[in-house]
Backbone:
């Protein structure tokens, strides 16, 4: 591979940041359009002789954009890895590739399957690094890379890492960052290369017709809030002290209480669920459009005709909400709309009059509002730009998104009406005007949106704000958080001590531990097994979740799933399959055992009987673990015993065995109620054939050992009663 460094012309601030990135794992925070990728290219040019370069980004369009930019400077084997490239092909390409551009989930899956190792990589570049939180794949990849290579180098790129110290520290720790290099638009090194951004805040009042609807919606919210206060779930019935975030927090707490058969909590949970739906209608009225509100209410009323969900029934029978819905329908028919629509039309028309070849982005919070905005912009060449399909909307594929972006680049259209999907991860060109149809409280999202303009020429940003609504609150929150982020970044220490030992894979013994894992299994368990040095083969399994040898299989169930599988009949069918296909089977229950009796409205006696039946009738031992990490350690230790101590092999196939005639007969009889393997064998031994069992009298059945009159009556009832849907 050749590095054509003469084609790179780094600015002063890029050279300064590069000097840090050469020596330290660095988080680079630069506004969009100021050349973060060029810093990554320069660092790759200095590191490529030591190994492969890996650049990670959240979407395929962004990967293609990065590859195109790198291809201008590097001549070599540059490859894109994504889900559209088969694992086998990726494994082959890894060996020959010099620079790899990949989505993080693809790399994570390949590492877990041990298709290749990150020890071959001299530099990893994490684009959109603010995503490196929680269980996002960036976190796992960084941990694995650090454990595989002593001379590692990480460069993390973002325009906005977050507004508080805790969030920034999380990114630093997760990506093993030693230094932060940040430059705001006002920084002396950056200012010569930035264009002015003119921000225009346009305010409007809700007209009387909309205020009337708002009054009835708020009365409905107030009624429910008063009940919650009376029951002691909130301290105040003041609507100004309630928010969507607060309602969601309350909902989570009530779900936990409801699982413990707290009937007051169940009633409160239904109230909170209806409040969240009403609160959504309130937001649409205050900030979006009458058309969006009407569409939402229509959908709620439509759902009420077939659903049994109490929260929806509660809404459509509410007097205040029925009045609000009727008023919404009436003013929609009269053509009355939210005043933002008129402000938007004027703003777009003015921009196109001043500069006919302008490119404009309009951000709206809700997909239901996109069509209304498009109807208002018939004078512009506008198209919608939304994410992938949802339950209520067809959405757009990445191919369709790329096509729309290309149309904008080619000036075939001049305006995109976007949802959150256009904020990051897409190669959208710089535009002349960005309009926030509604403010957002997130500093990260605000900065991402702003970054779409003022790159190569003077940019304009218009923020539409409805007075005395959440719009005003969100505007001030975002402004405060953005200022706080700048302050935190400037004050954040550039040194982070990392304890790497916990991330270093344990060296396997002479015989590596191998586990065949179902590809639908919980990712956390698979990650922990990988960290323990287990050689994993991940594929669909017909039986069980983890195969540890040709003799032993583990079925893992979280506590909630155990009870659900008992209710829907899966539990004992799975038990039959486990025992039929493997000499030994284990049921591994994950979670708090005491929650077993609080998950669903099932009698404790039934749960205890099921556990006893599994252990005695099916001879399936039951092990307990508190979390995925403990589950992984149990699986590892059992597999080690099977494979190293007992010297048992593992075929890594995972298909179910073909049933013999006798097994098919037993399987058929085990489908009868309360009939396990032992009783099925007893019945077949006595009556010889399944047909004879079906035709046996009640008296004949009761004579079978361990059957009893109660079971016999239930079996006869199942076999003889007429089927009715």
Residues:
């Amino acid at each position: 591979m050749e590095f054509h460094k003469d084609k790179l012309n780094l600015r002063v601030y890029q050279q300064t940041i590069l000097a840090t990135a050469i020596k330290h794992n660095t988080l680079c925070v630069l506004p969009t359009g100021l050349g973060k990728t060029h810093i990554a290219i320069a660092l790759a040019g200095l590191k490529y002789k030591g190994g492969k370069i890996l650049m990670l980004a959240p979407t395929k369009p962004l990967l293609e954009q990065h590859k195109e930019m790198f291809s201008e400077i590097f001549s070599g084997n540059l490859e894109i890895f994504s889900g559209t490239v088969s694992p086998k092909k990726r494994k082959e390409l890894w060996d020959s590739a010099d620079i790899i551009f990949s989505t993080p989930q693809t790399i994570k899956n390949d590492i877990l399957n041990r298709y290749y190792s990150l020890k071959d990589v001299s530099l990893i570049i994490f684009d959109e690094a603010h995503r490196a939180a929680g269980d996002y794949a960036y976190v796992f990849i960084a941990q694995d890379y650090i454990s595989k290579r002593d001379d590692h180098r990480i460069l993390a790129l973002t325009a906005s890492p977050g507004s508080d110290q805790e969030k920034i520290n999380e990114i630093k720790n997760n990506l093993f960052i030693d230094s932060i290099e940040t430059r705001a638009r006002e920084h002396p090194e950056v200012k010569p290369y930035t264009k002015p951004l003119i921000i225009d805040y346009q305010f409007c009042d809700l007209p009387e017709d909309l205020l009337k609807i708002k009054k009835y919606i708020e009365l409905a919210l107030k009624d429910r809030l008063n009940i919650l206060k009376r029951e002691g779930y909130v301290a105040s019935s003041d609507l100004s002290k309630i928010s969507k975030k607060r309602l969601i927090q309350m909902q989570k707490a009530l779900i936990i209480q409801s699982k413990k058969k707290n009937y007051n909590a169940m009633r409160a949970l239904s109230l909170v669920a209806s409040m969240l739906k009403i609160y959504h209608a309130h937001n649409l009225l205050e900030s979006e459009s009458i058309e969006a509100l009407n569409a939402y209410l229509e959908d709620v009323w439509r759902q009420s005709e077939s659903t049994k969900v109490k929260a929806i029934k509660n809404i459509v029978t509410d007097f205040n909400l029925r009045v609000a819905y009727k008023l919404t329908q009436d003013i929609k028919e009269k053509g009355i709309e939210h005043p933002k629509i008129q402000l938007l039309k004027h703003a777009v028309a003015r921009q196109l009059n001043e500069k006919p070849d302008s490119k404009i982005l309009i951000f709206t919070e809700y997909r239901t509002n996109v069509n209304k905005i498009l109807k208002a912009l018939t004078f512009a060449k506008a198209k919608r730009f939304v994410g992938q399909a949802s339950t209520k909307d067809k959405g757009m594929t990445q191919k369709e998104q790329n096509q729309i972006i290309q149309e904008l680049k080619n000036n075939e259209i001049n305006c995109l009406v976007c949802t959150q999907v256009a904020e990051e991860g897409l190669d959208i060109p710089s535009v002349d005007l960005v309009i926030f149809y509604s403010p957002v409280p997130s500093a990260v999202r605000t900065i991402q949106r702003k970054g779409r303009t003022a790159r190569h020429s003077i940019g304009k940003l218009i923020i539409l704000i409805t007075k005395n609504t959440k719009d005003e609150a969100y505007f001030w929150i975002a402004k405060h958080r953005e200022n706080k982020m700048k302050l935190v970044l400037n004050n954040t220490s550039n040194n982070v001590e990392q304890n790497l030992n916990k991330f270093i894979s344990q060296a396997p013994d002479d015989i590596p531990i191998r586990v065949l894992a179902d590809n639908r299994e919980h990712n956390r368990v698979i990650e922990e097994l990988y960290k323990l040095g287990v050689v994993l083969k991940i594929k669909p399994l017909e039986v069980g979740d983890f195969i540890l040898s040709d003799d032993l299989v583990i079925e893992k169930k979280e506590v909630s799933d155990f009870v659900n599988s008992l209710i829907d009949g899966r539990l004992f069918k799975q038990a039959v399959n486990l025992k039929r296909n493997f000499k030994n089977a284990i049921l591994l229950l994950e979670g708090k055992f005491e929650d077993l009796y609080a998950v669903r409205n099932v009698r404790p006696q039934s749960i205890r009987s099921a556990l006893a039946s599994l252990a005695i009738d099916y001879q399936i031992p039951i092990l307990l673990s508190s979390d995925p990490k403990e589950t992984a350690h149990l699986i590892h230790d059992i597999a080690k015993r099977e494979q190293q101590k007992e010297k048992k092999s593992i075929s890594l196939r995972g298909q179910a065995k073909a049933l013999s005639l006798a097994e098919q007969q037993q399987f058929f009889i085990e489908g009868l109620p309360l009939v396990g393997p032992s009783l099925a064998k007893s019945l077949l031994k006595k009556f010889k054939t399944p047909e004879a069992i079906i035709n046996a009298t009640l008296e004949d059945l009761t004579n079978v050992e361990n059957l009893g009159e109660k079971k016999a009556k239930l079996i006869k009832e199942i076999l003889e009663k007429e089927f009715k849907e």
User: Anything to note?
Assistant: The mean pLDDT is 85. The domain at 661-720 is CATH 1.10.150.20 (DNA polymerase; domain 1). Residues 263-288 form the longest helix (26 residues). The radius of gyration is 31 Å.
